[in-house]
Design brief:
The chain has 487 residues and is α+β, with helices and mostly antiparallel strands. 47% of the residues lie in helices and 11% in strands. 45% of the residues are buried. Heme binds at residue 403.
Length: 487
């Protein structure tokens, strides 16, 4: 049956995803606090869309953040990198500081510098290069499954984060099971989080801001030392390697390509961009499959008969790709991204002064009924017929700044998931709290996702959805899950 949204979540956050029109001549503006926005991104996005429709602004004093919900606005902004600049890091720190160097990665660059760096950084992510990663990806999957025991209860998000830290340090830095890589991964997650909280705080007068600013500068020094040490370890290893850092270093040495400063910034951003987004995508996909036993049974059958990653006779998308695309539609790991206009612009009903933050979000755009029928339903087969544009469906962003690691992330997911699922049954722990929140721009499970792992060899391939608590019903229908008893 269809689990109704909980009364408490409905009281504060709208549930439907129709796009109402802009009403009358009034500007679609809500007065509020940016600090509150940074504390409840998901609720704010849902409320603004519900109230204002395709485009909205949150106003705090004299400042505005503009939110785009409609694919036409996404197209206007994302395709025009000249007018709309990326600003992933609001705080660059003093010149020659660690903070300045660490925020030097691709996500923070614009104009010619972005084009030049993107050309170089994208080299290791081409289809030809990532073909080299197949064996390593499978080996990491084997190691992770070997670490599980039958009947074990785990937080799957923690498991997937650990898994992706290993995969990322292996593929990006060529370092197998390196303790320092774990430390760096955790530090990057913390540092990105501090940047986002403070980045929003910096837009408006806020007492907390100055203390935490000093804390951020000190933290970035610690992180930079460790990223430099990873680079040093990589350089010290004489064996020829296809990991991303080796390719970048080789290009650096052969062409004088990336400066050391750029290398630190790129390494840090690549590591952060790769492991957290992909770990959350793993988690959400395993969660959605577990809560949809009818889909899971088909996936299991296709793994058994070897067709899981095979296109259909008429070129239909392989089942594993349908599952991943659909999971990234319903619960996209990247919750929102941001641009600023570097000249005054007219955007829909707004005349925006230079430097206005502009947010776009797949969380809302992926749920528009005008593009996707029953948008909150997890229905992998919709991908047999639906063909949304890159501005209607944009889990990896769009336009000239499209994610360069998208094909690698897809390869990791489509190679690893069948390996996990062939041996293990993932069942959500009944009664557990599955709450989505947007933190550091990513949609992640606030309290993890508690799941029990059982070996098919012991338990047989039976699949059951579980009653759960939390706010996930705001984003996903779980029609196969029994209702949770009232708390
Ligand atoms: C499922 C996994 C992933 C998701 C959902 C994801 C999502 C995104 C999104 C939405 C953007 C665009 C941000 C914007 O427009 O402001 C982006 C950019 C980027 N991503 Fe990913 N990403 C993933 C995996 C990866 C991986 C594996 C890597 C590298 C190893 C990576 C590296 C990058 C880089 C360097 C950019 C900046 C591109 C530019 O500005 O030119 N991502 N990603």
């Amino acid at each position: 049956m269809i689990s109704p949204p909980s009364a408490s979540s409905m009281a504060t956050v709208p549930h439907l995803m129709q796009t109402p029109p802009v009403v009358g001549g009034a500007l679609p503006v809500t007065d509020g606090s940016f600090v509150e926005f940074s504390r409840d991104v998901l609720g704010t996005l849902l409320r603004l869309h519900q109230k204002h429709g395709p485009i909205a602004a949150l106003r705090d004093g004299t400042q505005k953040i503009v939110f785009l919900f409609d694919p036409a606005y996404n197209r206007q902004v994302l395709s025009d990198a000249k007018t709309y600049h990326a600003r992933f890091f609001g705080i660059r720190g003093p010149k020659r500081s660690s903070q300045r160097r660490l925020t030097c990665g691709l996500l923070a660059m614009n104009g010619d510098q972005h084009r030049r760096n993107r050309r170089m950084v994208k080299e290791p992510f081409g289809m030809r290069q990532i073909a080299h990663y197949d064996d390593a990806i499978l080996r990491f999957a084997e190691e992770t499954t070997a670490s599980w025991s039958d009947g074990q209860a785990v937080d799957v998000n923690e498991e997937m984060t650990r898994h992706m830290l290993r995969v990322t340090s292996g593929l990006l830095f060529g370092l197998d099971d390196n303790d320092l890589a774990y430390v760096v991964g955790e530090q990057i997650a913390e540092w990105v989080g501090m940047n986002h909280e403070l980045g929003v705080g910096a837009l408006v007068p806020n007492d907390e801001f100055s203390d935490r600013y000093e804390e951020l500068l000190a933290y970035s020094e610690k992180l930079e030392k460790n990223v430099m040490e990873l680079i040093r370890l990589r350089r010290a290893d004489p064996k020829p390697s296809f990991d991303v850092l080796s390719i970048l270093v080789r290009m650096h040495d052969a062409e004088g390509g990336l400066s050391d400063e750029e290398l630190v910034g790129q390494a840090c951003v690549l590591f952060g961009a790769a492991h957290m987004t992909t770990a959350h995508s793993f988690t959400w996909t395993l969660f959605l499959l577990a809560q949809h036993p009818s889909v899971m049974r088909r996936v299991w059958g296709a793994i058994e008969d070897g067709t899981i990653d095979r296109e259909g006779e008429n070129g239909e998308m392989a089942l594993i790709d349908r599952v991943i695309k659909e999971s990234m539609r319903v619960l996209p790991a990247s919750g929102y991204s941001q641009r600023i206009n570097n000249e005054p612009v007219r955007l829909g009903p707004f005349e925006l002064m230079r430097g206005t933050p502009i947010v776009f979000t797949p969380i809302i755009t992926h749920k528009l009924e005008s593009t996707f029928e029953n948008p909150r339903l997890f229905d992998p087969d919709r991908w047999l017929t639906t063909k949304p544009s890159g501005y209607e469906y944009h889990p990896f962003g769009g336009g000239p700044r499209l994610c360069i690691g998208g094909p690698l992330a897809m390869k990791i997911l489509r190679t690893t998931l069948p390996r996990f699922l062939s041996e293990w049954r993932f069942t959500v722990e009944p009664g557990s709290d599955v709450t989505a929140e947007v933190r550091s721009t990513m949609l992640n499970p606030k309290n993890g996702v508690r799941m029990r792992l059982n070996k098919h060899a012991e338990a047989g391939p039976t699949f059951t959805a579980s009653p759960i608590r939390g706010n996930i019903d705001l984003l996903a229908d779980l029609p196969e899950a029994p209702e949770a008893p009232a708390a």
